[in-house]
Amino acid sequence: MNRIDLLLYNIGVLITMQGSALPRTKEDMSQVGEIHNAAIAVLDGKIVAVGTEEEVRAVITGLPILKQIDAEGKLVTPGLVDPHTHLVHGGSREHELPLKLKGATYLEILAQGGGILSTVRATRLATEEKLYAKALTSLNTMLLQGATTVEAKSGYGLTMKDELKQLRVTQRLNQSHPVDLVSTFMGAHMIPEEYKQDPSAYVELVIHEMLPEVKRLGLAEFCDVFCEHGVFSVEQSRQILHAARELGFGLKIHADEIVPMGGAELAGELGCISAEHLIAASDEGIAAMQQAGVIAVCLPATSFNLRLKEHARARSMIDMGVPVALSTDYNPGSSPTESIQLVMTLGCLNLLLSPEEVITAITINAAHAIGRADTIGSLEVGKYADIVLYNATNLAYLPYHFGINHVHTVIKQGQVVVS
Ligand code: NIG
Ligand code: FE
Asked: What are the binding positions for 4-imidazolone-5-propanoate in this chain (predicted)?
């Protein structure tokens, strides 16, 4: 070490999440590694020293420091990780709002050919450039909210051509934007209208044509399936995820979002890296996830926006030993918001998580849920210097003062990208 590229000093409260080799659950979700009067030193985009300011200055003593930032006593956390989004899609669905207010449910709107299917029509009609421009705007919003790594699913194309179009947008954004994107293929998001009479032919298409092509082109790391009443059955989901595993994809599943179907049980059986939604997950399903080490990705903005009376039982999941992550589920239907900070508030007020559990859920546990915990999700020597500074001096202030953006500065791999 012959220099320091960046020294961030005078940090009032630093949340490090140190010591997070495994996803956290139970009381470990409350251990956020808080350090007062702290500092972080960065070289080549990675952290080379972190601790109290005294400790860090002792480690880097005598070295030239290229840039220094005075954190002015602020709260600082690892870059936030949003592990479940449908970032790339055409159009929007505000026309569903009056239907919802009249009492139409998500599955009713979907059964009438609206919902996901209307976004599929808009996505098929959109050019790649148009999808890129729209997703870029959302990604910028996510970054302003403090997200430095975001997972993005396909699933609004539902033809080979249109799924690849969505996935290429994710790939291009990942190459050009400071936010790192992790790509998931979700061709099994819905049975497209043209396969309505023969859903198993669509399952065959996903398994035998789409999955191998996505793999060949290296366009996605994970495969996800919407296992839901009227969408993909448990057996169809099992077949698709088996095929994906054979090809080397990591496995994710939208499980038990609305109807208790046995999706959480399937996630346990297959050893998925994560199961998402879980609002209607059974006790047996949660136990199966716990045994297999599946991470629960809970999406409180979705249950809020769907006006569901029930929420995912994140509190019991944590008490039962399931690691919980939180995410926006950003999509044009069930969760039209990029705001990970709103999710923090809903995580506290609707899922009854503490601010410490919430920050764990959107940093290190979210990083584990997308297979990135070796490089991000905590502020530790050797990890990327993805760092957020807030206009706040303690953690609880973030979920407490809601509906506004608390972010002051975002640093991505040692570079200031929002200030
Ligand atoms: O995660 N549940 C399935 N997929 C999305 C919603 C997609 C849509 O309504 O466009 C979700 O909630
Ligand atoms: Fe989703």
From this structure: 93, 156, 189, 257, 334
